[in-house]
């Protein structure tokens, strides 16, 4: 049997499973759900605004720190650089709940005022989403040789201007996709945000925490409605990224 046929069959089967779980079944449930109830749910709206605020701030922080760090890792070699790169991968392989627990210990010792506040939630989301900007920046910078920057500097441009006009502009598309993914990840973050932010209703509750708590309280319809809404919003953004940068 042709190996390409086997791989294609596996891909189609996996795609069919995801299609049924994330799209077809939610659509079948739409007739029994009333999404308008969410519009008049003050708790849902507060969680929506809280999630937007924290995720946007976390994404800005991820961009500020992730892009320069990605450039440094892309342009340098050695044991220390590889060690740093490995450290930055930790949030990708460790459950967010553990990251939240470590942050909770840190804040309890150093910054106790950050616990159960919007500041703590922002930092938690930043730690979880930071690698997405870092990896996209690092990978895109590695594909662009520094010869363009050297030519720009020989023509009189300072180091920052030579980087911005050449390497950064060439890599911007890939970096932007990483920033968008970072925002989506921050907006949908649950574990670390719950531990550090506290998940306080009408105060430090984002959409995933809202879904968890409403279902735990027996309000299954509200939780399912919010879940389906977030799935479709995520699909729209991911489709836009694939369409724009493929």
Give a structural overview:
The chain has 246 residues and is mainly α. The chain has 2 domains: 1-32; 35-245, MetI-like (MetI-like fold). The chain contains 12 helices and no strands. The protein has helices at 3-29, 36-39, 42-75, 79-88, 90-93, 96-109, 118-142, 147-154, 159-187, 191-197, 207-216, 220-245. The longest helix is centred in the N-terminal third of the chain and has 34 residues, at 42-75. It is globular and about 65 Å long. The mean pLDDT is 86.
Which structural traits does this protein have?
about 250 residues; 2 domains; MetI-like fold; single chain; mainly alpha
Task: Give the proportion of residues in helices.
Answer: over 70%
CATH homologous superfamily grouping of the largest domain: MetI-like
Number of domains: 2
By CATH reckoning, the class of the largest domain would read Mainly Alpha
Structural class: mainly alpha
* Distance between the first and last residues' Cα: 31 Å
Radius of gyration: 21 Å
Element-by-element helix/strand order: HHHHHHHHHHHH
CATH architecture of the largest domain: Orthogonal Bundle
> How many runs of DSSP E, i.e. beta strands?
0
According to CATH, what is the topology of the largest domain?
MetI-like fold
Question: Topology, please?
Answer:
Blueprint lengths: L2 H27 L6 H4 L2 H34 L3 H10 L1 H4 L2 H14 L8 H25 L4 H8 L4 H29 L3 H7 L9 H10 L3 H26 L1
